[in-house]
Amino acid sequence: MTRILGVRVDDRGRCVHYAGPHDVVANRCATCDGFFACHRCHDELTDHPFGRMRTDAAGSVLCGACGHVMGYREYSRSLGCPGCGHPFNPGCSLHAPLYFEL
């Protein structure tokens, strides 16, 4: 499975900042190409702003529960992972402008 970067990341991609049962989504930074548990982890571990992905880009979101990789459109239409069904945190949609060019 693709490695999820972050601060104290567990085996499902939850980090020190977001560790709820549904916080299993990692987002790809368009600048460094890494999947990060959250924007705060990215800010702590890198020396550049989070590069937002285009909404039509493939492979911009990763499910930490099963490793399914998807684009923004597939992710944003789902309440859970299309690969394994694990529920996603509905509050993550509030952070979409941090990760995607909306």
TrEMBL record:
Pfam family, one: zf-CHY
InterPro entries in alphabetical order: Mito_Tim_assembly_helper (IPR052604), UCP017292 (IPR016694), Znf_CHY (IPR008913), Znf_CHY_sf (IPR037274)
UniProt entry tagged with the keyword ATP-binding: no
Any one Gene Ontology BP term: protein import into mitochondrial intermembrane space
Keywords: Metal-binding, Zinc, Zinc-finger
SUPFAM superfamilies: CHY zinc finger-like
Domain of life: Bacteria
GO terms, molecular function: zinc ion binding
Domain CHY-type: 8-86
Protein name: CHY-type domain-containing protein
